[in-house]
Amino acid sequence: MLETSARLLRLLSLFQARRYWSGAELVDRLEVTSRTLRRDVDRLRHLGYPVHSTSGTSGGYQLGAGATLPPLLLDDEEAVAVAVGLRTAASGGVTGIEESSVRALAKLEQVLPSRLQRRIKALHSFIVPVANAGPTVDAATLSLMAGACRDNDGLRFRYHGKKGEPSERQVEPHRLVSFGRRWYLVAWDAARKDWRTFRVDRIDKPALSGLRFVTRKLPAEDIAAYVTRGISYEQYPHRTTVILHAPIERMAEFVPCTLGTLEAVDENRCRVHIGAYTIEMLAGYLGMFGVDFEVTEPPELVEKIRHMSERFSRAAGSQTQ
To answer: What's the CATH fold of domain 2-63?
Structure first.
């Protein structure tokens, strides 16, 4: 009986690890006969687990969604990852899940083996979160938008721009992108007939529009890079592209994705796309990178760098007199 119970737990763990298993794969993993596998699947069904099966030479099994959540079987690394993730979620940038995260964490830590409890306590003891007063996003809002992306349901909402100006939007949502504590919705704007990226914390009262849509080709293959470019470059009134005389691996340490985007030119040079609110800020960023660079446009940036160079030369000269 104990052997059978252990095998059922192993079978359930396999179903939760992957969506579909062929019968031959399960027989091999469990080291049982096909007849024993069928009996074990029947036992899971008797316990309330909706295990779907297909027949034939390519037949297999799949654990479906049931009326209640089945117990999750986690290995050591998965359990540690979930515990750390829940602790982070309890104080993260998504509102509405703090209490449920704490409850889930308490349940998990109660049944963890002592060896895993020590690992998690060590992580919690030596990781110090920095208080952040940045924007937060309601968990229900994220759930609504994720479901709309999945089901091709249109959304309508009021959006507040950078200066707080409101506008009514009706969109076809395609992707949600997490960027630190901020979330962005990539969607096709029906009125503007173009792709737009919306900061989720600026979206007010989102609701399903009742209009279904056909999935469109995304504006970029790498949607995360697409959003990053919009955040670090395209949203600013002053922009430039500069050749840096240093390998991209080195510059990646000094140019965070919130400041600019990098791409390799060759093994010794890379290109940075960078934006700022003023020409002075652009020139200042380039000076802080600490490497030689080539800049040809915009002309006002070239002129500003020339003037700054002259000022720095005068300042350095005054110190040597």
So the answer is: Arc Repressor Mutant, subunit A (1.10.10)
Please provide the DSSP assignment of 153-166 as one string.
EEEEEEEE-TT--E
CB 272 within 8 A of CB 280: no
241: buried, middle or exposed (CB in 10 Å: 19+, 13-18, 0-12)? middle
The answer to whether residues 293 and 270 touch, using CB atoms and an 8 Å cutoff, is no
Which residues 6+ apart lie within 8 Å of 115 measured at CB? 76
Backbone angles phi, psi at 235, to 5 degrees: -80, -10
CATH topology of domain 137-219: SH3 type barrels. (2.30.30)
CATH code for the part of the protein at 226-317: 3.30.70
Structure tokens at 53: 């099966």
pLDDT tens digits, one per residue of 33-61: 999 999 999 998 888 888 898 887 667 89
Q: Is the pTM of this model over 0.85?
A: no
